[in-house]
Amino acid sequence: MKYEEINQSKESLLPHEEPRSKRKINYPPWGTRAWILTGFNILVFFTSALLLIERQYSFITRPQTTWLRESTRYSPLWGTPLEKQLKKYEMQMNSTLFTPPHPSQYRDTLKPSKDVDSAWEALEWVRTFPITEQDVVAIGKDPQTAVKFPPDYGFGDNAYVAQLDIFHQLHCLNALRLIAWGQFEQDDETAKRPFSDLHWHHVAHCTEVLRENLMCSANLDVVTFNWKETQNVPFPDFNLNKKCTDAEMLIEWQEENALSAEISRGFSRPEGAREVPMEDEYYRLYGLDRVDVGHR
Question: Could you list the residue ranges that cross the membrane (predicted)?
Fold first, then answer.
C-alpha cells in the first residue's frame, strides 16, 4: 500500500484552520506587557523571599523534639516537659587513647579511682517511674504481664513500672569497666596480672568512647518490668522494641567499598605533613623526650 505524504502547505491539519501567516494576533501594547512582566517578576521575588524566610524561621523555631521521635520507637515521655526541655548540643569527644589534660570525671587513668567509681555510681543509678496501660501497649508489651506499682505508692490503678533504657546501658558498660579494673588488688595500687600501662590506657579509652557515644545518642526508650519465675521483686524486661539503624547495611557497605585491613593504613607519613601533638603520657610511657616539631 502506498502512503501519500501530507503536504502542510496544501492541506490544513484541522478543518477551517486559517494559514498561520494570515492569522492576526492581537498582542497587548508594549507598555502593558512590560508592566505585566515586571509585576510577575516582583511576585516571584517576594514569593521566593517569603518561602526562604519561612524555611529559616521554621528551622529556628520548630520544636526540637523531632529527633527524639525519629530515634525512639515510642516513648511514654513524648509530649511531657522532658521532651520539650531535652535539647541536642554539639561537642567534641574527649576520648583520646592516652589520658587527655582534662579528662572527664568518668575516665580512669592507670589505676582505679574512688572518685571515678563514685561518678559512675551516680551515673548508672537506675530509677523507675509510672506509665499507663496505654503506654505499655504502645511500647509493644503486654499489660497482663507488665508490673504495676502497688496502690500504696499513690499512683492509682493505672500505673506500670518503667525506667529509662539509657541508664541500663550505662550500667552494663560500668559492669564491664569494673570487671576490667577488678584486675587490681583491693588496695587499688597493685595489678593482679602484669598488664602494661598501655593496656590500662586502652581499657580507659574504650570505656570512655562507649560512654560518650551512649550518652550522645540517648533517647526516650523505656524498659518495663515483669514478675519473673523464682523472683519476688519486679524483673526488667530487656527485650525492648527499638527503632534501629540497619547496621548490617553498614557492614555490607564497608565490605564492598572500604579498603582491606592489610592496606587501609599501610603507608607512612609523607615528608612535610602537618602533625598534631601527642599526649604527654605517650612520652612518659616510652621514656622519650618531647621534641617540638613545630606542628607544621
Answer: 34-53
Instruction: Please tell me the distance from the alpha carbon of residue 184 to that of residue 93, in angstroms, as a whole number.
Output: 28
> Of 81, 244, 225, whose CA–CA distance to 159 is shortest?
225
- 84, 63 contact by CB (below 8 A): yes
Residue in the block written with cell 555510681: 121
- Structural contact between residues 226 and 109, judged by C-beta atoms closer than 8 angstroms: no
- Exposed/middle/buried for 251, CB within 10 Å: 0-12, 13-18, 19+? exposed
- The beta strand positions in 148-211, using DSSP E, are 160-164
Query: Which residues lie closer than 8 Å to 93 by C-beta, 6 or more apart?
Result: 209, 212, 213
Listing DSSP states for 38-64 in one string gives HHHHHHHHHHHHHHHHHHHHHHHHS-T
One-letter amino acid identity for 208? E
Other Cβ atoms less than 10 A from the Cβ of 256: the count is 7
CA angle, 158 then 162 then 165, to 5°: 155
List, in sequence order, every residue forming a beta bridge with 184; answer none if it has no partner.
191
Q: Contact, 296 vs 272, CB < 8 A? A: yes
List the chain residues with pLDDT less than 50: 1-23, 25, 55-62, 64
Identify the DSSP state of 222. E
Strands 235-237 and 128-131: unpaired
Strands lying side by side in the sheet with 128-131: 128-131, 160-164, 222-226, 235-237
pLDDT score of 50: 67
